[in-house]
Amino acid sequence: MLSVNTNAGAMIALQNLNATNMELSQTQNRINTGKRVANAKDNGAIWAIAQGQRATSQALNAVKDSLNRGASGIDVAIAGGESVSDLLLQMKEKALAASDTSLDSASRSALNEDFKALRDQISKAVTNADFNGVNLLKTGATDIAALANSDGSSKLTVAAEVMALGGSIVTVAATGSIGTVTTAAAMITTVNTSISNTSAALARLGTKAKAFELHSAFIGKLQDSLDAGVGNLVDADLAKESAKLQALQTKQQLGVQALSIANQTPQTILSLFR
Q1: Which residues make beta-bridge pairs with 157?
Q2: What confidence score (pLDDT) does residue 134 get?
Q3: Which of 20-29, 54-63, 93-102, 203-212 has the lowest mean pLDDT?
Q4: pTM across the whole model
Q5: Contact predicate 180/162, CB 8 Å
Q6: What gap in Å lies between CA 43 and CA 272, rounded to an integer?
Q7: What are the boundaries of each domain within the chain?
Q8: In which element (H, E) is residue 158 found?
Q9: What fold does the segment set 75-233 form as a domain?
C-alpha cells in the first residue's frame, strides 16, 4: 500500500542505520580507549571483576614498599653487625696479646687502650645501624613486621638482634678491659662467645634478608600476572576492531543510501495524480 502518512521502508532503513551508528560509536570508543570494557555500562560484571583485581594490584604497591623498607633495615643491620664482628676479632687479638705473662706493663697498658677504643667503637656501630628509624641492633630494638599480602593479614617478620655491649649476643661489658693478665685471659673467652653469638645473629639476618628478596620478587610477578589478567578481561583487540570499523563505515554509507531511496517512495504517489 502506498501512503504519504506511513513510510514503512524508511522506518526500517532508519532503524538499521541507527543500529549501525550505535555499533560504529562503540567500536570507535574501543579504539580510542584501547578497552573493550571501559566502564560499568559496557559490561557491568566484567568491569566489577576487573576493578577488584585492580584494587589488589594497587594494594601490592604498598606491600612492595613495605618489603623494600624492611629489606633496607635488614641490610643496614647486617652492615652494622659485620662491623661489630670485625671489631670483636681485633679485640680478641688484643686480649690474647695482653694475656702474655712476659709482657711489660707499658705494653699491656697500650693494648688495653686499644682494646677499650675498639670496645667503644662497637657502641657507635650499633647506634649508627639505623635506617628510617629502624635499628635492629640497639637496646630496645623492635622487630620488623613488613606487609606480605594485599589485605595486610600476613606479615614477614624479622626479630631484633641486639648487639649492644653487655647483652646476650655481645657479652663484653661496656666497661670491659684487659689491664691485667687475669682480665685479659678471661676476656678471651668472653670475646670468643661474642664472636660466635654475633656470627649466628648475622646468619639469621642474612636468611631473613634473602626471604625478603624472594618475597619481593614474587610480589612483583604476582602484580604483573594480575595486571595481565585485567588486560585480558577489558582490553580491546585493536586488529579486530580496526577491521570491524571498516565494515561498519561501509555499512553506514549503504544505510544512508537505503534511507535516501526509501524516502523517495512517497514521491511516486504524485505520478498517480498527473
Answers
A1: 145
A2: 93
A3: 20-29
A4: 0.79
A5: no
A6: 53
A7: 8-34+236-273, 75-233
A8: strand 155-158
A9: f41 fragment of flagellin, N-terminal domain (1.20.1330)
